[in-house]
UniProtKB/TrEMBL annotation:
InterPro entries according to UniProt: CAF17_C, GCVT_N, TrmE/GcvT-like, YgfZ/GCV_T_CS, YgfZ/GcvT
Span of domain GCVT N-terminal: 6-107
Membrane in keyword set: no
CAF17 C-terminal domain ranges (all copies): 212-276
Gene Ontology biological process: iron-sulfur cluster assembly
Protein name, entry field: Folate-binding protein YgfZ
Amino acid sequence: MSSVKIARLTDRGVIRIDGADSEKLLQSLVTNEIEGLKLGDARHAGLLSPQGKILFDFFVVRTETGYLLDVTASKAADLVKRLTMYKLRANVTITDESPSFAVYAVWDDGAAALTGTRTCVHFKDPRHPSMGIRWLMQSPPPPDAQVVELAHIDYDALRVRLGVPEGGKDYEFGDAYPHEADFDLFNGVSFTKGCYVGQEVVARMQNKTVVRKRVVKVSAAAPLSSGAEIHLGEIAIGRIGTVDGRHALAMVRLDRAAEALDKNQRLKAGGTTIDIDPEALARYRASAAARPSATLQS
């Protein structure tokens, strides 16, 4: 078996949701399909504001007694409060168990075989096949000669390469719609399930709206800096998020970026010329051509 790359994700927390009504509660609230989720399977999902903005993003994994939510650690307490507000008289218990868990990401060819030897909650990252497997562990993984322990930055580099964004890094909680955060591209939203908070806005963006702003991959000739604004002339049209040297994820106004490319104008971030992922621009152009008069965002 080839070596397995594992990274401790120190910025992740874990929430436990148990009780007879736990499935019903989650199904009525989150962006993805929860009903029928099998033991050990997971969904990538979000909890939205009534206006359709992402308040929290997380993974929902089925356990023998209910569900575990793999969530941004700094948002765990707030998510418990929000879910508790919605539960009313439902037979559900919601607890922040972040201090009891460590979250790891495992990738490369040997990940599945290694996971089969461990007794912990683990699931395939549902966003992209190459994102590997996540472990939610209540004790450290045992030493293994085939395990290569990596830093969090190595995991972030993997996300940058695959174009997979994360909340709080590549988009702001409370400020981005699911489409802008690429939930539609990375299995974070169901367009066929029943009602959930913010669904009407999400459905309208899917069916009638040109999504002009998204998290996309960008590259440059020199190293990029997280937080740097992307400019077209004097106008800011985006911001750099997660960085891996000369490559990064960035929230960008794709209509402005496409317009700049058509006029042979260059985008810059921190004085460095940048290029937008051509596949993202092609998807935007196709969407704009299909819905030339439909808009939602300012």
